[in-house]
Amino acid sequence: MIINKMIKLILNSILISALMFSKGFASEDFLRWVKNFETKAIESGISEKVVKEIMSKAKFLPKVIEYDRYQPEFYEDTFTYIKKRTSNRKIKEGIKLYKKEKSVIEVVEKDFNVEKELLLALMGIETNYGKYLGKMDIISSLATLSFDERRSEFFTEELLILLRLVDKKIIDRNILYGSWAGAFGNFQFMPRTIRNYAIDYNKNKTIELKNIEDSFASAANYLKSIGWKKNQPCFFRVELKNNIPKKFLNSSARNIKNKKKVNFLKKYIKNYDNLDIKENLVAAIIIPDKDIIPGAETLSPAYIIFENYEKILNWNRSLRFALAVCTLKENFENEI
Ligand SMILES: [Ca+2]
Questions:
Q1: How is residue 72 annotated by DSSP?
Q2: DSSP secondary structure string, 269-333?
Q3: pLDDT tens digits, residue range 44-76?
Q4: What pairs with residue 98 in β-bridges?
Q5: Cα(203) to centroid(ligand 1), Å
Q6: Which residues of the chain are modeled with pLDDT < 50?
Q7: What distance in angstroms lies between residue 126's CA and the mean position of ligand 1's atoms?
């Protein structure tokens, strides 16, 4: 299954590249798409001047389509994924940043009731503490992904939201460089996330997500708004008993199913007595390697996850991303 999928993806990307490099394809069709998009944006109430100025610079970026079709992190097993993102070096650099920005970070932690260790972990994993912010012109990234058919509707909406933020002068149009998928700043916010949760914390009338004050406060505000609960657990690694019914094994981040009280699930956990879990918490079991790594065991690795873990899935819908974030957070708790 997975191998077939990979071959399909590779063939797809060869086909796409061939199409794109065939003369005229991208330029003509893309320009036509830009024209249509401009009309739509102006009709939706964004000023014509801003739409024309910004979209006149939008380019079709074939690399973005390549990245979209092949995302290697999906093929990394959970242990490798977590290890790479929670190294000693990552912890050291996070502590260095914390020491440098201690006063701001501690005020944000208090104001939003979100652990500083979680904020540091997210920034460390998203951008290596602001070192990898991405250099892609995100107007062109979003335009390319909107023009592309795979997730056109989603990215068109993202692009419209971004233009609206620029039109309202909430975001500075001259700093719109980020990831290939249009994510931006220290915490890699998509335009929708900026609109819904970003704040001008240092009150200088613009939201600067590459600045410590605004970006930390925006990330904390996002986590608080989606219901992150301070001092509640995220996950524990578990060893499962063979008699656990299949329906309790979640392998997809899209929809965590069959949540139960710990009290109910504990009978399927071999190492339960070694874990310090409150029995009335709602939990679920995940097996993150199962659908991704060819030949992966069914019952291992496995984790019991709680409400807070699902909040991180809300941030980025990947089972292993949320495991890595909470692992790094815990590492910071032991060090700070
Ligand atoms: Ca600001």
A1: G
A2: BTTGGGS---TTSEEEEE-TTTTTSTT--SSSSEEEEEHHHHHHHHHS--HHHHHHHHHHHHHHH
A3: 999 999 999 999 999 999 999 999 987 665 578
A4: none
A5: 5
A6: 1, 22-23
A7: 21
